[in-house]
From TrEMBL:
Its EC number is 2.4.1.21. InterPro entries: Glyco_trans_1 (IPR001296), GS/SS (IPR011835), Starch_synth_cat_dom (IPR013534). It catalyses: [(1->4)-alpha-D-glucosyl](n) + ADP-alpha-D-glucose = [(1->4)-alpha-D-glucosyl](n+1) + ADP + H(+). It comes from Roseiarcus fermentans. Pfam families: Glyco_transf_5, Glycos_transf_1. This is Glycogen synthase. Belongs to the glycosyltransferase 1 family. Bacterial/plant glycogen synthase subfamily. Keywords: Glycogen biosynthesis, Glycosyltransferase, Transferase. Residues 5-238 form the Starch synthase catalytic domain. The keyword Zinc does not apply.
Amino acid sequence: MSGLKVLSVASEVFPLVKTGGLADVAGALPGALVREDVEMRTLLPAYPAVKAKLAGGEVAHEYADLFGAPARIIAGRSAGLDLFALDAPHLFDRPGNPYLGPDNTDWPDNARRFAALARVGADIGLGAIAAFQPQVVHAHDWQAGLTAAYLRYAAERGPGSLITIHNLAFQGHFPVSVFWELGLPDEALGLDGVEYYGGVGFLKAGLLFSDVVTTVSPTYAREIQTAEFGMGLDGLLRSRGGAVHGIVNGVDDTVWNPNTDSALAQPYNALRIDMRGRNKTALQNRLGLTRSVDRPLFAVVSRLSHQKGLDLLLHALPRIVDRGGQFGLLGAGERLLESGFGDAAASRPDSVSCVFDYDEKLAHLFQAGADFILVPSRFEPCGLTQLCALRYGAAPIVSRVGGLADTVIDGNEAALAAGVATGFQFAPPTVDALARAIDLAFATYHDPAAMRRMRLNGMRADVSWRGPARRYADLYRSVAKIDG
């Protein structure tokens, strides 16, 4: 089979709109699939920033009424992506975060907004745009979860379907009253339909009705089928059996390339790894830390949340400083965590510095300048930060969960002796276990040959989309509906 056509349905796509890793995946996967002979087009909402990028696009389809007002699908190309944008001003013509209003709470009509996105995804799958008839529809997370339900209850035979769980914690659970706005038949409101704990479950619907379910690492695929990590959906996921697959994410290795990265003070590669040190000096200067090659620099690039285990790190931070290390943070989130790290920076400005923001360019310098990148998550579907760290020669220190366990080779005694370690894993997610991993990192840092080997191992690891794209292409072909 050649020239397979796939429609991706996502609520955010990098570089047009991004709040998290979902956008990175949705933005990178289409390009990676080209070598697999898969043509992917992406449907996303026409938020103001997206609509501005597609000002010259063509109207591919129109709706006289889509959840309360006219709408249209604009086809165009931006940032190397072939796009369909759902131009529904009554739903998406809002500034700022795609999901949150000015008061930082969910938009009250999010159920209607993302039901519309899913409905249009199903319509395209069923042939609404003659110029692009997909054989597979790939939905991402709860925002696109109803796509498979609309396909399931359509009168005609639809394309194959696949849904990817990027984070099971976000499920799209709404009051049952929204059901009668969705345009689904009454029979869909049941345990074998979209009903979920007395309401409507968007993600639940996608997991139930999609031909294939994927998530973003093999370990997370196993974890979410347990009560500990399944968040109420483990029974459904277990019942899907062999339909659940874990595929580790990649990173765009043209964007994340230390040899060509304009955000760095000094480009470098594995053959010129000694040049990397200039980025550490640049990062120390940027953060106002004491310039020193002898002090290991630990860093975090993350949303600040309980899930990410940053409260554990806050308690372990004195261990880093007391042993002569430095710490830099880039990220924002929960107020108590910001306050705690801010206090630590105020008390030791030579050793601790925080930037409570998300700055894509500065994130690249963090990866190139830090000696260790900390990812102490309590659960982590895949994680991209540690993949970027490997690419840039910063050794990750990660909890042994989800994709972190799948992508970092632990620097235990045997791995260090064999010269294959790329970082450090710790378990369980506790302050004591994290502190022990930090101690191992210090010991490795003060053994220059071991530290150099660990950096080079990470830089030589394949964290690209090539392998994952091949696996997605195989799954698409396994479920594709072909005419005739």
